[in-house]
Structures are given as C-alpha cells and as structure tokens.
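Input for the complex:
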Amino acid sequence: MSTDSQSLHTVTQPQVYETKLRVRYAETDQMGVVYHSNFIVWFEVGRVEMMRQLGFTYNEMEQQEGQHLAVADVRCRYKAPARYDELLLIRTHLMNVRDSLVHFGYEILRDEDGTLLAEGESVHLVLDRDFKRTRLSPRYLPAFLKAAGRR
Amino acid sequence: MSTDSQSLHTVTQPQVYETKLRVRYAETDQMGVVYHSNFIVWFEVGRVEMMRQLGFTYNEMEQQEGQHLAVADVRCRYKAPARYDELLLIRTHLMNVRDSLVHFGYEILRDEDGTLLAEGESVHLVLDRDFKRTRLSPRYLPAFLKAAGRR
Amino acid sequence: MSTDSQSLHTVTQPQVYETKLRVRYAETDQMGVVYHSNFIVWFEVGRVEMMRQLGFTYNEMEQQEGQHLAVADVRCRYKAPARYDELLLIRTHLMNVRDSLVHFGYEILRDEDGTLLAEGESVHLVLDRDFKRTRLSPRYLPAFLKAAGRR
Amino acid sequence: MSTDSQSLHTVTQPQVYETKLRVRYAETDQMGVVYHSNFIVWFEVGRVEMMRQLGFTYNEMEQQEGQHLAVADVRCRYKAPARYDELLLIRTHLMNVRDSLVHFGYEILRDEDGTLLAEGESVHLVLDRDFKRTRLSPRYLPAFLKAAGRR
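Predicted:
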C-alpha cells in the first residue's frame, strides 16, 4: 500500500477527526472479542464522521453530486482485542488526496485508557453516477485537501 | 400475525423447500452461539432458494420485472442455539399468497440430528420499481400459488 | 405473542428509555434502504442502553452475575424504510418481567420528524453461567420491575 | 505485508483450496453491490473450508486443542464488484507458516466467468486457551506445511 502522502509541498500536518461508538453484542464472536471484519465497518463510520466535520455529508455527496468513494483497497492491523460494550474512539485522517483517489488512515482506540486496538487505511476511487472513474467535485476537493494538511 | 392460510379451497399441502448452509464464525457472539439476528438473514436465504427451486430467481424478479418483496413483518422463535460450523437445514414454505402479499414460514434445523433450532415467518408486500404497492406479476403468481398448495 | 403486560396491579406506566444511533452504509442493501435484520440489532442497542439508564450494564450482568438474557422470541413490524445516514431514535420499554423472563418492546423512529419506522418486541429467558434457566438476580429485578411500571 | 513465502527450500507450489458461496441480499449495500467488509468474512469461509479439506476443522482446533488463529493483519484489494445472487469461487492458499503464525492468501472470483473480484491476505497468530502466543500443535503443523508447498 503506497504511503507517499508526505510530498514536498506538505507544510501542515493532516488533521485528525474523531468520533466514538460503543461495541454492540452483535459485533462480538465466540472468542469473546469483536469479530475482525467489524473494524472495517467502523473505518466507514470514521470517514463518514470526518466528512460531516468537514462540512458536508457522504450522503449528499452520493445523492446530490452523484460521487461515490468506492473502496479499492483496505487494510487493518490488529493490536489488541475490542470487547463488548467498550466505548471506542475512532481517529481518522487523510493520508493522500488526488483528483480521483482518496486515501484515509484510521486508528481505533479504547476510549477509557487510550489503548490502540487497531490501525488501518483504505484507498477509495471517485466514481460518478455510472460508476465510471471521475474527479472529485470542486465542491469537496478543497475540504479534502485542507484535511490532508495541504492548501 | 395472521395464519389464515388454510382456506376452504386448499386441497393440497404447501410444499417445503430445503437448502443448507454452514454457520460462519462471524455469525457467532460471545455467548458462544449464533447471534439471533442471523436467523433472519438465513430466512432470506431460505426464501431465495425456494424461488430458485420454483424456477425463477428473486434477482430477476427485481431486475427484470421491477418487483420487490419488501418485508412488512418478521418473527422468529428460538428453540435451541445454533453453533459455529454446524450445517443447518433451512426449510421454507408459503403460508399465504395474495395479490400483493407473500407470507413465508421457516424452520431452521441442525442438519446432523434434525433438532429444530428456530421457526419463524415473514410477511412481504409486493412493491413496484417506485416502491408502490402492486400485484404479483402473472409471471410469478402461479408458481407461488402452487408452492402454497393451491391451484 | 402475549401482550398481557397490563395486569390489574399495574398502577404506573412503563417507562420509555431512549437512545439514538446513526444508520451506517454497511446496514443498507441494494433496495437503497436498511436491510431488515439490522432493526433486530438496533433492538439490542435499545435494551442495552435501557439497562445502562437503569443503573447497571448488561456487560456486568453477564460477567459478574453470570446472568444471560437469551432471546426466545423476536418480532418486528416495518412501517417505513430507514435510510443511510439518518439519525434514529430507539425507544425501549418493558412489556413484562417475571422471575426468569424479560419482555421488551421497541419503537424505532426517524429522529428528524418522529416518523415511526418500525416497532417490535423480544422475549428473553434468564440463563445462568451453564445456560440453565434461572431467576433474575435480586440485584436487577427491582430495577426491571420499576421500569415495567410496577413496584 | 511480508510475502517472503518463496523460501529456498520450497520445491513444490502451495496448494489452492476452493469453495463456493452465493451472495446474500443482506451483503449488498445501496450502491447495488456487495459491501466491502463482507469479503473479509468470505476470507474466513475460505480458510475454514481449506482446513476441512486438509482433514481437520477449525472448530476442533479451537474446541479440542484450544488453539485460536487470531487475526493480526488483513488486507483486501477490490478489482470488480460482487453482486447479489452471484455464485462466487473462493480460492485460498497458504502464503507462509511458521511455528506461531499462519499467513493465508485469497482470491475471490465470479464463478460464472472467472472474473477476479478481489484478492487479499490475512496473517494470524496462534494463541492458546489463555490467548497467549503459542506454537501450532504438531497435530496441524504438518498439514499446514504441506498445504504451503513444503515438506
């Protein structure tokens, strides 16, 4: 997975956007911890709440602008188990933004003591209504660039 | 939930359509058994495979005829836990069919010994492409009526 | 499903306990609305948050007292679709409590305009560490009785 | 993610183990395709069926030997969307096996025409009953080594 987000003209740091959620019983498995694919769903919660904090919603991006962020690559490294009823902190940042690609990074921590439970990333292609590759609408690109720490 | 499927002109019994599936680890929870909402997903597997055995697919019903079977009511009674890696037998039958309503019944059994794990039912409204209530297409109604044990 | 919670000695109304959640993309399906089994998971969120508001957690009930509330029966009636990114209000109340049985009722509403999307109920058996039927611990019974509108 | 499975003493190729599954409606999302986290669940189906073909089950590995394969790292690259009701072919192979680590690789293809939909990998740590790192039981190690193309 490319991690070339630290290009020369990056002068500010990427912002980190936070949200919290509580582990549901449905998300546990018989090992007594959270089943691993749920972290991938929580990444989605992280990036959606990031966009809300950036001033728009992924919902309007899809419904009004017809722009989809289709997942091309996702990765998660598990550090410690998440357990039922724990309050989790999802920290999301932008690793890279290009015309037709958005690369998010995530950390998932136990809120109570700040233990890092998992970290990951996802690469998304920008698609139009016909699911063809397209460029990020000028309506959203500046906000993404700013979040990525670029002007 | 109405169970008035035994109307006077019913002369044959409803057919039972069977399919099998194996419990996934993802479907268990920290009690060490299957989380209960997964049975509702398995009901879906049961009715979809019933339709395939009736000679059509729910996929073509949606894509070609624009007919959706929207769930209006679902119920499940749990008799015994389902466990990881067990092979399950899903038995589906039609409890009632009317112009714009289809009522399925289900039994979920452990395949190995025939133990009944759960039984349930779901009522579906027939919707058109605009999600307005409509009548079952004549392409499907006869098969549903036959499955329900009616001519 | 029995709804005989209005017994003669009920002099107060059951309390309603509220919590909110936002619909995740993962919870939608290709009809463009929430897949119906997710409401059953949201019922779980509702009753867990009810218990937290009653002064204890389901987690400690399981971990410390070894008491499980195993689902014996669940039902959901769907009134209107839930959609992606909507904020939902889950309203939970106790329909009945007996020594070894707890019966919850639920309403799920769109928070923005109060539209009722679904209503349902679930019956739970109280099980001990060995998954044998047992009585609700005196540590929890009074809170449940009070929530049910009984002394 | 390390891919150093082609060590010098590898003289045979890793075997590929196949299983099929059909996409459930519950697995789709409002883009009309499968929600991406479900591929991670299908990877689990792939490795579980691989083990069954190797002559044991993951269930007995957990229940009898008290050995868990805890996910430490998972990655999925998406090539083409999976759609409702499609029959999928899951191809699983072992990328690496060491005393206390198992590294699986996966390909998910549309069965009808062999189109590659996604490929991925997962790294698992071997844990004992107390969730402490341990070595693969001699009961399973030879089968894993053979599957990895080593003696």
